[in-house]
Design a protein that fits this description.
This protein is an alpha+beta fold and about 450 residues long. It is about 30% helix and about 30% strand. The relative contact order is 0.17.
Amino acid sequence: MTLRTTNIATMRDGLFDVLIVGAGINGAVSAAALAGRGASVALIDRGDFGGFTSQESSNLVWGGFKYLENYELPLVFGLCRSRNRLMKAYPDNVKEIGFLAALGTTAPYAPWFAGLGATAYWAIGQFGTKRPHVYSPDEIEQAEPVIDTSDVRGAIEYFDAYLIDNDSRFVFSFVRSAIEAGASVANYVELLSAERDGDRWRARLRDVDSGEEFETSARTIVNAAGPFVDDLNQQWGLSTTHRIVYSKGIHLVVPRLTTTKHDRVLAFFDDTQRLFYVIPMGRRSVIGTTDTRVDSPFTAVDDDDRSFLLEQINARLDLEQPLTVDDVIAERSGVRPLVVKRGSGDQRDVDWTSLSRKHEIERDDERGVVTVFGGKLTDCLNVGEEVCAEVEELGVPLEDDVRNWYGEPARATRNEFYRQARLMKLDQLRSKPATEPLTDRLWRRYGRRAFGLLE
């Protein structure tokens, strides 16, 4: 019997403190936080864990330097604090990385002014990263020869962080933490309906694989359905202050463009004066992202998207041959669920990129529902803690948060794994000398569970 089968059997006719609908980053982190504090939790998703919006990000853990343009200082401060927490809690998974922003003659800021902004950003981030640095065109050519400096006045390099593996693995780490804390978790389980019955919800679920329908009960529901939160709330007859609108973002994966001596993100202002990036991903580079208003959460990369990004990057890099569609190895397309207040219109008459990326959490005391609107990978720990606070307000008793429900195992445990791996000469099993040491990869991806892989 698989773990999924066991968990579905536990859900069938069970009673939980919390049923969480949606296992993207918001649902996964909520499950880990609640289960880690003693709540009985059921987590479901009609698709794969982290299989929608949460797998289409730029894989960045950042304080939101570009949000300074809109003077969203509280948001930037909060994101920087969250970034620092993640870097400290996940030192092998969340690594600091430089962002080299080249500033051409059409860029909205001169290098000296951007340098002041980067220094302010460093201070807002409580000096949690390396100090920013201003580059001359000659220094840019030495650091990243691929940048075309013919129209560049200078550059700034500031520092944030990124996920070494990818966003969906990061999401699943919280799902795994929830399981280890006792949560019942199942993907490919769809919520068909839910009705409030006295002091609990009765939810009708369907196993997508088998088609079997069954019922479970919960005292409260956390709506963490990402782009679909409004659909669920409407189905349940809930009225909320906020709602979601969609912004489409795409990435193109191409052969590595930047130097392999070290990892660094390149940043440029496109022709609309919006920042886009060239992000290292092993032997590949990821170009993106865009920011386009759409009306549906289901998106795909289209010809206009490809043409725009390829045109923008070719104009800013000094390549032997311009990138073409034939150079694109893979594509990623997803939506950002952006939060707006109800009654604010369709937002088509505003600067789309100026809409806040801040999440909002609402609680319905009468129905026993917590809804998470928006959210970012960087801010996930805050989301987990805020959801716990709201669930407590709904009458679910939680244990004191005396032990961290997140983070990598202690360094002593890591050192013991590395010692055992060294004794068995694990890294000599690599297929190619240039590939990443197996010890690093197994520890980063599996933590203490990696000990079982040594047997």
